[in-house]
Design goal:
Blueprint lengths: L1 H4 L2 H13 L2 H8 L3 H15 L4 E4 L2 E4 L1 H28 L5 E6 L1 H6 L1 H9 L6 E6 L2 H9 L5 E5 L9 E9 L1 E5 L20 E3 L7 H10 L8 E3 L3 H9 L4 E5 L4 H6 L3 E2 L9 E8 L6 H17 L8 E2 L1 H5 L1
Parallel strand pairs: 3-4, 3-5, 8-9, 8-10
Antiparallel strand pairs: 1-2, 5-12, 6-12, 6-13, 7-10, 7-11
Length: 320
C-alpha cells in the first residue's frame, strides 16, 4: 500500500521545503544535501502521483495538491513528535507514581502478571496498589485518588464519568475442604444449606450475582451464613471446618490447583461477572498508565491459555 511506503523523512523534507520556500535552505536546516532533499520530494510525489511543489521566481510554492497534503503531513509529524516526547518522559527515572485499585480476586489472579510485565519496561515508576471493594475503588477513582481500577463493571450510578474496558468475565465458585461431607454423597445444590456458608455481604460486587444464582438453583435462603470479604479468613476457616465458601474463583485458584480446597460441582456460567479496566473519561492516560493498561490486556489474554483459564471466561466465549 502507498501509505506504507511513505516514510518520516519524506514528510520531514516536504514540510521543511514548504516552510522555508527553498530546497537549499531546507537542506541546511535538515543537515542534508540538496540532491538528497530533492530525491525525497520526488519519491513522495511519485508515490502520490501528483505535484506537491512548484518552482517559481519567489522560490518553491505549494500546488493545490500540496495545500491539501500539508495539513495531513503536519498532523502526522506532530503526532510522531508527541509520541517520541511521551516515551522520553516515561523513561525519566523516579518521577512518576501510579495508584492502581484492584479487587482482591484481581490482586491474586491477574495483578502479579501485570506488575511483572510492567516492570520489564524499566520505567522506575512507583506503583501504589490498593485492594478494596469495587464501590470504594470506583469512588476513589472518580475523585482522583486512583489512576486506574482493575475490577468489576460498576452499577450505572457508579460509572458516570468513567470508561470501562472489558478484559474477561469471572466465575463465582462454591468451595469446601477436601474431606467435606458433601463430597462423599450424591450432591444436590440445596444440600449446602445444611452447613455454614461463608457469604458475600450486601454491597460486595458479587452479592447480587450470588443471590440470583441461588434463586435459580431453588435455594430461597441460607439460614446459617457468615458474611465476609476477608480472603485470609475464608481460606483458613474453610480448610478447618465444614463451611461452604462462596467466592470469586480467582481468589482460591491456587488452593484449588493444589487440592487444599475443592470446588463443588455447580455450573458456573450463571455467575459470570465482567472484569476490566476503568479510568476517568475526562483524563488522557499518561504514557506510563497506558503501558500498565497494555500489560493488563496482555496478562488477561495469557490467563485463558494457562492453568488459570478455568477462573475466567473471555467475551467471545460467553457469546458462544
Amino acid at each position: 500500500m502507498m501509505e506504507n511506503r511513505i516514510k518520516y523523512r519524506h514528510l520531514q523534507c516536504f514540510l521543511e521545503v514548504a516552510r522555508q520556500g527553498s530546497v537549499g535552505r531546507a537542506a541546511d536546516v535538515l543537515a542534508l544535501t540538496q540532491p538528497a532533499v530533492s530525491k525525497k520530494l520526488k519519491e513522495l510525489e511519485d508515490m502520490l502521483g501528483v505535484r506537491l511543489l512548484e518552482r517559481s521566481k519567489k522560490g518553491v510554492e505549494l500546488t493545490q495538491y500540496g495545500e491539501v497534503f500539508i495539513k495531513h503531513a503536519g498532523t502526522s509529524v506532530a503526532a510522531l513528535r508527541e509520541g517520541a516526547s511521551s516515551v522520553a518522559q516515561a523513561k525519566q527515572k523516579g518521577r512518576a507514581r501510579l495508584s492502581i485499585g484492584v479487587l482482591p480476586t484481581v490482586a491474586a489472579c491477574l495483578m502479579p502478571k501485570v506488575v511483572e510485565k510492567f516492570r520489564n519496561a524499566d520505567l522506575d515508576v512507583t506503583l501504589n496498589i490498593v485492594s478494596a471493594q469495587n464501590t470504594l475503588l470506583l469512588s476513589q477513582l472518580r475523585v482522583g485518588e486512583l489512576d486506574l481500577v482493575i475490577g468489576r463493571l460498576g452499577e450505572p450510578e457508579q460509572v458516570t464519568g468513567l470508561t470501562f474496558e472489558h478484559l474477561y468475565s469471572e466465575r463465582v465458585s462454591f468451595v469446601v475442604c477436601p474431606d467435606h461431607p458433601l463430597l462423599k454423597q450424591d450432591f444436590e445444590p440445596a444440600d449446602i444449606t445444611r452447613f455454614p456458608v461463608l457469604y458475600p455481604p450486601q454491597g460486595s460486587i458479587i452479592f447480587n450475582a450470588v443471590e440470583s444464582y441461588l434463586v435459580a438453583l431453588g435455594i430461597g435462603s441460607v439460614p446459617d451464613r457468615i458474611e465476609t470479604i476477608s480472603d485470609p479468613f475464608g481460606k483458613e476457616y474453610t480448610r478447618r471446618s465444614d463451611a461452604v465458601w462462596i467466592v470469586s474463583r480467582g481468589v482460591v485458584m491456587r488452593e484449588l490447583d493444589s487440592g487444599e480446597l475443592i470446588e463443588l460441582p455447580l455450573k458456573g456460567q450463571e455467575t459470570l461477572g465482567p472484569v476490566g479496566l476503568t479510568v476517568r473519561s475526562d483524563r488522557v492516560p499518561s504514557m506510563q498508565l497506558r503501558m500498565l493498561m497494555e500489560a493488563a490486556r496482555e496478562s488477561a489474554q495469557e490467563i485463558v491459555s494457562g492453568v488459570d483459564s478455568q477462573a475466567v471466561v473471555f467475551p467471545e466465549r460467553i457469546a458462544s
